[in-house]
Design a protein that fits this description.
Layout lengths: L1 E5 L3 H13 L3 E5 L2 H10 L4 E5 L7 H10 L6 E5 L4 H10 L3 E4 L4 H15 L6 E4 L2 E4 L4 E4 L2 E2 L4 H12 L7 H8 L7
Parallel strand pairs: 1-2, 1-3, 3-4, 4-5
Antiparallel strand pairs: 6-7, 7-8, 8-9
Length: 185
């Protein structure tokens, strides 16, 4: 799954990227709102994590523009602003969830998994197709009761197929969702 992370705090950005990569996500990063807007409109993402307090273009404006352009992937707001008014503004702009700093990376990843599942029309972390099952919480793939060992890239590919059953995906789309933008293909 390919994510966009728009965060201006370089240390937090690097830390989050590392946690997300360990959770088998491909992560593109942007450090300001303008760069984030360019990437959000230029590339296909499964979800985005956007800070509200960004330089050049604030996160709420960024989300508004992304939604105006018809991008409907899930967006999670990540911010230190925790008043109910800020939460309402973010959700009204088109965000799907709101997480305040400080937070635990495990909570962020759990929320992302839930948002991506729901966007694909799946409420449960257990997705099945024939004899195969995928548990997006434990990252386990099984055929019947037997655990199927997969590499990180194989897991990402299998997850895309399971979340988009019956859909045709081009090689380009699959490649973009499996690898980071700076990965040399």
């Amino acid at each position: 799954m390919r994510l966009l992370l728009v965060e201006d705090d370089r240390e937090l950005q690097a830390n989050l990227k590392q946690h997300l990569i360990q959770a088998h996500y491909s992560v593109d990063v942007a450090s300001d709102g303008e760069e984030g807007l360019f990437q959000a409109l230029e590339y296909q993402y499964d979800a985005a994590i956007i800070d509200v307090g960004l330089p050049k273009l604030d996160g709420i404006s960024l989300i508004n523009r992304v939604r105006e352009k018809g991008r409907d992937y899930p967006i999670l707001i990540l911010t230190a602003r925790d008043s109910w008014q800020d939460k309402v503004a973010g959700l009204d702009a088109g965000a799907d969830d709101y997480l305040t700093k400080p937070f635990h990376p495990e909570e962020l990843i759990a929320r992302l998994k839930a948002l991506i599942r729901r966007a694909a029309g799946k409420a449960s972390p257990l997705i099945t197709n024939g004899p195969f099952s995928l548990n997006t919480s434990t990252l386990e793939v099984k055929k019947g009761q037997e655990l199927v060992p997969l590499s990180g890239s194989e897991y990402k590919l299998f997850e895309i197929f399971m979340l988009h059953q019956g859909e045709v995906k081009s090689k380009t789309v699959l490649t973009e969702h499996i690898y980071d933008q700076d990965f040399d293909l």
